[in-house]
């Protein structure tokens, strides 16, 4: 279907399943493994004998992986590691007016990674979540992924590569609940990261009151901004590529070129996916439209992409010029775990920072008198007399 105009909403929203998912989460909290086995049979059609994948199963599955896939995983891993290492914050400190202060960037202890596995396999998502965690220094990684009874060789190979502690053969909301609250087989973690369908998103939203989450990454979104320099065949391929994630993918082309819009419309007219085609007066208007959508992926297929990039305010990840958005999904380096549902208006994609806590410190052995007096004055203004006294006593 072709819609001429901007999308007014996302194709699907997880609030439609909140009530149902709330019941799933509660049942897992109460019944633990028993609920996991029940839901996996109900939603995945698999009767689990055990929830945890054994080390032997992981090793046996990883050994089935062909050398070319292992090589591809190794190449992609190095690029992703380079990206997150290059942005990892240094341990720095400073000081002013007699106070020494700084931040100790501290890695999280236990992280749960959800790797989607309903309609498609996403071993790349395990790389995108596990590598920044390792770069941050996280020592305990736990993975939940629907395996339909057996563990995928690529996921097994990556799990061994990242020294993942445990893999659970569970998916959906029940997997998120298990990671959040723990069960007899599943470790309770401090933070859950990873994308998923509406049930996974709703569960992350619900458990986020008790455990950290990276965000609520749902169905994939791509907005392409194109001018007359763009190649309509490349645009067509980029849109259909992300359309492979399913019919809840948001696909938008905003163009200043009637030719590009006409050619792409002809190419997509036979597809059963939904495409939004939008005419923009000029590049500024096109980028303004893109910012209003705040897409997960933004592709700037224009003659001056670096100039256009300066106007971008809301997007998860941006590809410039003829760079295909799908390369972000695998080997460009930046993460493909990106905000959807317009969350790009207030957050970006997953990075090493999602696995680090900035613990700040201060040591004031001999702070300037002005700082002491200011603190005492404000404490008294707020009525905290003992706050004020505790400060004054130190520096008499
Ligand atoms: N934003 C990102 O960074 C990003 C990255 C990769 C994938 N994704 C998205 O993740 C999604 C993956 O979805 P998926 O469904 O293939 O896999 P999934 O693993 O997210 O969900 C599958 C699980 O959902 C549960 N489930 C299925 N039907 C259910 C029902 N009716 N009621 C309750 N639970 C049910 C099952 O337990 C199943 O294991 C896609 O939309 C894809 O676009 C997003
Ligand atoms: N485009 C998806 C969301 O960024 C990521 C992905 C994984 N595998 C294929 N594509
Ligand atoms: Zn993709």
UniProtKB/TrEMBL annotation:
EC number(s) from the headed UniProt entry: 1.1.1.23
Binding of Zn(2+), residues: 242, 245, 329, 387
Matching SUPFAM superfamilies: ALDH-like
Domain of life, source organism: Archaea
Top EC class of this enzyme: oxidoreductase
Cofactor note: Binds 1 zinc ion per subunit.
Cofactors that this protein relies on: Zn(2+)
Pfam families: Histidinol_dh
Protein's name according to its UniProt entry: Histidinol dehydrogenase
Species: Acidianus infernus
């Amino acid at each position: 279907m072709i819609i001429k105009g901007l999308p007014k909403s996302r194709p699907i929203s997880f609030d439609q399943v909140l009530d149902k998912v709330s019941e799933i989460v509660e049942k897992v909290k109460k019944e633990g493994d028993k609920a996991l086995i029940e839901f996996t049979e109900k939603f995945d059609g698999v009767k689990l004998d055990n929830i945890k994948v054994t080390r032997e199963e992981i090793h046996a599955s990883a050994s089935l992986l062909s050398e070319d896939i292992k090589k591809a995983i190794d190449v992609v891993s190095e690029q992703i590691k380079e990206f997150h290492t290059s942005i990892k914050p240094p341990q720095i400190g400073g000081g002013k007016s007699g106070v020494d202060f700084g931040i100790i960037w501290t890695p999280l202890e236990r992280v749960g990674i959800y790797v989607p596995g309903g309609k498609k396999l996403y071993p790349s998502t395990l790389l995108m979540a596990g590598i920044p965690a390792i770069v941050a220094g996280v020592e305990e990684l736990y993975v939940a992924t629907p395996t339909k009874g057996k563990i995928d060789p690529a996921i097994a190979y990556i799990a061994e590569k990242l020294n993942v502690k445990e893999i659970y053969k569970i998916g959906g909301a029940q997997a998120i609940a298990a990671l959040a609250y723990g069960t007899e087989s599943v470790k309770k973690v401090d933070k859950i990261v990873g994308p998923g369908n509406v049930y996974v998103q709703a569960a992350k939203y619900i458990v986020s009151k008790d455990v950290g989450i990276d965000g609520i990454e749902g169905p994939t979104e791509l907005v392409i901004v194109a001018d007359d320099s763009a190649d309509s065949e490349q645009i067509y391929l980029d849109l259909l590529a992300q359309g492979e994630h399913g019919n809840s993918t948001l696909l938008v082309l905003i163009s200043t070129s009637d030719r590009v819009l006409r050619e792409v419309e002809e190419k997509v007219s036979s597809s059963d996916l939904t495409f939004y085609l939008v005419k923009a007066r000029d590049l500024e208007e096109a980028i303004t439209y893109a910012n209003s959508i705040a897409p997960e992926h933004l592709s700037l297929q224009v003659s001056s992409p670096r100039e256009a990039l300066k106007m971008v305010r809301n997007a998860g990840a941006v590809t410039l010029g003829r760079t295909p958005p799908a390369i972000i999904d695998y080997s460009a380096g930046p993460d493909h775990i990106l905000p959807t549902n317009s969350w790009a208006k207030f957050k970006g994609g997953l990075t090493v920072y999602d696995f680090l806590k900035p613990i700040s410190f201060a040591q004031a052995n001999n702070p300037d008198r002005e700082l002491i007096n200011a603190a005492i004055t404000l404490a008294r203004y707020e009525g905290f007399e003992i706050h004020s006294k505790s400060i004054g006593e130190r520096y008499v």
